[in-house]
Specification:
The chain is mainly alpha-helical and about 190 residues long. Helix content is about 50%, strand content about 10%. The protein has 2 domains: about 20-80, Fe,Mn superoxide dismutase (SOD) domain (Helix Hairpins), CATH 1.10.287.990; about 90-190, Iron/manganese superoxide dismutase, C-terminal domain (minor pseudopilin epsh fold, 3-Layer(bab) Sandwich), CATH 3.55.40. Strand 1 (about 120-130) and strand 2 form a beta hairpin.
């Protein structure tokens, strides 16, 4: 199977002023593309060539796992972004309020997961055993390796924000939670997990 860079679900300038077209060009066009290219090189002519991305992630280690997981993580990340996303409504808001006590508490916990992730990694809203949880993972690690269903992720690798926010990870996180979450995508993931 040849892996391909999936199309972005929006134009490269669609998230401005929160995330610039230049950041998208580097993050999607260079970093994400490199993970796809490297994954294809690592699987060419090997048994993994016939596996799906999820199958590779669940069975691989080392560079093969890292590149496969980063292809999946980034493809998932882009779908979770939307300009002026605002707050969730309906069943998503109800589920978040039940799980965290309030939407504000969720934002605090999710933001803290991203802020306290030492080095590169991800903050996630996941479903585990029917319960919503916030987790963080280092490097390329992801919820499916731990029996969890990903609902939303925030990339806290520096390449996700450095052009626009320099070393101000906290400002990027604040902007992400206030303006960029695609709650329709979260709702779809929640519905699909039941």
């Amino acid at each position: 199977m040849v892996f391909e860079l999936p199309p972005l679900p929006f134009e490269k300038n669609a998230l401005e002023p929160y995330i610039s077209a230049e950041t998208i060009e580097y993050h999607y066009g260079k970093h994400h593309q490199t993970y796809v290219t490297t994954l294809n090189k690592l699987t060419e002519g090997k048994p993994e060539e016939k596996k799906t991305l999820a199958e590779i992630i669940m069975s691989a280690e080392g560079p093969l796992f890292n590149n496969a997981a980063q292809v999946w993580n980034h493809s998932f990340y882009w779908k979770g972004l939307k300009k002026d996303g605002g707050q969730p409504t309906g069943t998503v808001m109800e589920a978040i309020s039940r799980a965290f006590g309030s939407y504000e508490k969720f934002v605090e916990e999710f933001g803290n997961a991203g802020l306290t992730q030492f080095g590169s990694g991800w903050a996630w809203l996941v479903l585990e055993g029917g319960a919503l949880k916030v987790i963080k993972t280092p490097n390329a690690d992801l919820p499916m390796k731990h029996g969890q269903t990903a609902l939303l992720t925030m990339d806290v690798w520096e390449h996700a924000y450095y052009i626009d926010y320099r070393n101000a990870r906290a400002k990027y996180i604040e902007t992400f939670t206030q303006h960029l979450i695609n709650w329709d995508f979260v709702a779809k993931n929640m519905a699909g997990a039941k």
